[in-house]
Amino acid sequence: MKLYMNAAACSLSPHIVCRELGLDIELVEVDRETHRTSGGEDYLTINGNGYVPALRLDDGKVLTEGPAIVQFLADSVPHGTAMLPELGNLRRNEVQSYLNFITAELHKPMVLLFNPAYATVHPEFRALVSKRLAWLNGRLAGPYLTGEAFTVADAYLFVCLNWSPWIEIDLKQWPALHGFMARVAARPKVREAMQAEDLEAFDAGGVFFAPHAYVASSGRTGSPVRP
Length: 227
Ligand SMILES: N[C@@H](CCC(=O)N[C@@H](CS)C(=O)NCC(=O)O)C(=O)O
Description:
Bound molecules: glutathione
Number of helices: 8
């Protein structure tokens, strides 16, 4: 399988899921400006929307949309029920509920906070994201969103929360979420995925990750991640 991706973008979520499940994938980087892949393909012929992630299966079929991809990955192997419970188990629907919450209530408004074209409404979007994060913080009782098991929704949440420093959202105000980040960042397979995307911790707590070139630079101007 091939995973079309950008470092630290939402494609890191299916990347983490692949590694957690022990699935063999080839990472293919997509140039955001030219829509060319590292292998020279025109990415618009793979995903007409131009954004990552996309998953190309071994038979050539392509699946797009992060939340659908991570569910497909977990369903593709028997042990995937550890990350997405089986049909008929309400915990599966709880994981799906979180995937939908993350994609609609966090990911999309966070994307707008990266976009200077929306600068005039950034305070409102920041307030909205903060309200959602406060709610989530109050619900996070176990180590992970639905309890003891690290699910596909946790991988997605980790990736989105990792963007917070660049949109002026201080996660420390929500201790459960901050603790969640530290817990996920310490998972060996998550570390492996970040290493493969050349990401390094850039804060003292080792909770937020950015490309090596950004961490190593003295100025650290602009955003090193583009969701
Ligand atoms: N609805 C899509 C959104 C994907 C998305 O926003 N991808 C971003 C990276 S996190 C991207 O590639 N943006 C570039 C673009 O929109 O051209 C999904 O959930 O997969």
